[in-house]
Write a structure and sequence with these properties.
This protein is 37% helix and 21% strand. It is α+β, with helices and mostly antiparallel strands and 403 residues long. The chain folds into 2 domains: 244 residues, 2-Layer Sandwich (BirA Bifunctional Protein, domain 2), CATH 3.30.930; 78 residues, Anticodon-binding domain (Rossmann fold, 3-Layer(aba) Sandwich), CATH 3.40.50.800. The strands form 3 sheets. It has an 8-stranded mixed sheet, with helices on both faces. The chain has a 5-stranded mixed sheet with strand order 13-12-14-15-16, with helices on both faces. A 3-stranded antiparallel sheet has the order 2-4-3. α1 packs antiparallel against α6 and α6 packs parallel to α10. The protein is elongated, with a radius of gyration of 27 Å. It starts with 12 loop residues before the first helix and ends with a strand. The structure holds histidyl-adenosine monophosphate. The site of histidyl-adenosine monophosphate has 25 residues, from β6, β10, β11 and α12.
C-alpha cells in the first residue's frame, strides 16, 4: 500500500472542519484589520529563500525541498510565506508605488525537518505581511491581531518578546557576542561553532542544554540597543500594556529566520508539548531592499495551523438542513427530486436505498440534519411526506406541495 510521505498528513472529516473553521475565522479578523488576500506559488527559485531566510538558517541550510526542474532551474518548495509575498510585492512594483500594502495568506509550507508531534514536513500557515509602515504601532497591531485570533479560538498563550536591534546597534553587539563565543568555543556544539561565523546571534536559541547554560552569561542585545530601537521597544511594551496584552521578555528569542530587525515575537502554548510555538513574527525593514526592491519597512507574522488545531475550542455544531429517505423503492426517484429542490437553498442529503424509519433516523443523525423526511407507500398515495424536526423533537405529515 502506498502511504503519504513521512511528516505529511491528510486533512479530512473532523480535522478538515477545524482547519476551515480556523482559516475562515482568521481571514475574517485579518480583513477587519484591513488586510487583503494574496496567493503566491508553492514553488519558487531557491535563491529567493537563500537571500531572505538566509543561508545560515537551518531552514535553508538543512531543510529545503530543493531540486533542479526540467528547465535546469534551481527551485524549491516554499519553507515559509514571507519571502514569496515580498517577491510578489516587488514584482508588482508596489515598492515603487509607495503607500501601505497589507496582505494575508494561508497554505502549505515544506521543511525537511525530523518529524515529531507538532513538527511536520508539510504544514500549513496562516500569515500576514504589512508593508510601508515605519511605526511600532503596526508591530503592536500585528501582536494584537494574533491575540484576537487566539482569543476567538479559545486558545490560551504566552507571548515572548525581544528586540533584535538594527544596523546601528546590531554590528557592535555582534562583535561583542563573537568575542564571548570565542571565550567558550571549546565547549559549544558544532552547530554553534558554525553559527559563530555565519550568524552569531543564532547561537542564543541553540537547543543544546550545555550551550544554553554557557550562554546565560552572554552579553544581551537588549541592554545595548540604540536610542531608536530602545524607544520603539519601550513604546511597544506600553502599547501592549495599555491593550491588556501580557508579555514576557525573552532575550534569547532570535527567531529561526535571518531577515528580522527590531521587534521579534513568538506566541507559545504550554498545552501541546515541546513544539510549543503557535505563532511567530516580527519586523523586517531591510528584506525588500535585500531582494532588490526600494527600501520599505515591513512587519508580519505566521501561525502554525496544525499546532492550533490541537487547541481550538470548536463552537457546538447545530443540526442543519435536511435528510431525505424512501421506505419503498417506488419513492426513491421522488426523494432524489425533492433533495435537489431543497439543495437550492439548504444543505440536503438523501439515501439512495429504501430503508425502514429507524435506519433513516440514524442516517439523519449521522449527517447532523435538522429534519428527517421520509416517504413510504402511504405518503406516496397521499402525496405527503413525514417530517421529524430532530431539534424540536416534533413530527408531522405534510402535503408535498407545502414541503
Ligand atoms: P516561523 O516561526 O518559522 O515563522 O513559522 C511560523 C509558525 O509556523 C510557527 O510558530 C509554527 O507554529 C509553525 N511551524 C513552523 N515549522 C513547523 C513545522 N515543521 N511543523 C508544524 N508547524 C510549523 C515564519 O515562517 C515567518 N515567515 C513568519 C513571519 C511572517 N515573519 C514575518 N512575517
Amino acid at each position: 500500500m502506498i502511504k503519504s510521505l513521512r511528516g505529511m498528513n491528510d486533512i479530512l472529516s473532523e480535522d478538515y472542519e477545524r482547519f476551515t473553521y480556523f482559516i475562515d475565522l482568521a481571514s475574517n479578523i485579518a480583513q477587519k484589520y484591513g488586510f487583503h488576500f494574496i496567493e503566491t506559488p508553492l514553488l519558487e527559485e531557491t535563491a529567493l529563500f537563500k537571500r531572505s531566510v538566509g543561508e545560515s538558517s537551518d531552514i535553508v541550510g538543512k531543510e529545503m525541498y530543493q531540486f533542479i526542474d526540467k528547465g535546469e532551474n534551481d527551485v524549491c518548495l516554499r519553507p515559509e510565506g514571507t519571502a514569496g509575498v515580498v517577491r510578489a510585492f516587488i514584482q508588482k512594483k508596489l515598492d515603487k508605488a509607495g503607500g501601505i500594502h497589507r496582505f494575508f495568506y494561508h497554505g502549505p509550507m515544506f521543511r525537511y525537518e525530523r518529524p515529531q508531534k507538532g513538527r511536520l514536513r508539510e504544514f500549513h500557515q496562516f500569515g500576514v505581511e504589512s508593508f510601508g509602515i515605519d511605526s511600532v504601532y503596526e508591530d503592536a497591531t500585528m501582536i494584537m491581531m494574533v491575540a484576537d485570533i487566539l482569543k476567538a479560538c479559545g486558545i490560551g498563550y504566552r507571548l515572548q518578546l525581544n528586540s533584535l536591534g538594527d544596523q546601528n546597534c546590531m554590528p557592535a553587539y555582534r562583535e561583542n557576542l563573537v568575542s564571548f563565543i570565542e571565550s567558550v568555543e571549546d565547549e559549544i556544539c558544532e552547530d554553534c561553532k558554525r553559527r559563530k561565523s555565519t550568524n552569531p546571534i543564532r547561537v542564543l536559541d541553540c537547543k543544546n542544554e550545555k550551550c544554553q547554560s554557557l550562554y546565560t552569561n552572554a552579553p544581551k542585545l537588549i541592554n545595548v540597543l540604540c536610542s531608536s530601537c530602545e524607544d520603539d521597544f519601550s513604546k511597544l511594551k506600553n502599547i501592549l500594556h495599555d491593550n491588556e496584552i501580557d508579555y514576557e521578555i525573552d532575550t534569547n528569542l532570535v527567531r529561526g529566520l535571518d531577515y528580522y530587525s527590531k521587534t521579534a515575537f513568538e506566541f507559545v502554548s504550554d498545552n501541546i508539548g515541546s513544539q510549543s510555538a503557535i505563532a511567530g513574527g516580527g519586523r523586517y525593514d531591510r528584506l525588500v531592499e535585500f531582494l532588490d526592491g526600494r527600501p520599505t519597512p515591513a512587519v508580519g507574522f505566521a501561525m502554525g495551523i496544525e499546532r492550533l488545531m490541537e487547541l481550538i475550542v470548536m463552537p457546538e455544531t447545530k443540526r442543519d438542513g435536511y435528510y431525505l429517505g424512501a421506505m419503498d423503492d417506488e419513492a426513491i426517484d421522488l426523494i432524489i427530486k425533492l433533495t435537489q429542490d431543497k439543495r437550492k437553498n439548504f444543505k440536503a442529503n438523501c439515501d439512495f436505498k429504501a430503508k425502514n424509519l429507524k435506519n433513516h433516523l440514524k442516517g439523519a443523525d449521522k449527517v447532523n440534519a435538522r429534519f428527517c423526511c421520509v416517504i413510504g407507500s402511504n405518503e406516496l398515495n397521499d402525496t405527503t411526506i413525514w417530517v421529524k424536526d430532530l431539534e424540536a423533537k416534533s413530527e408531522k405529515v405534510i402535503l408535498l406541495e407545502d414541503f
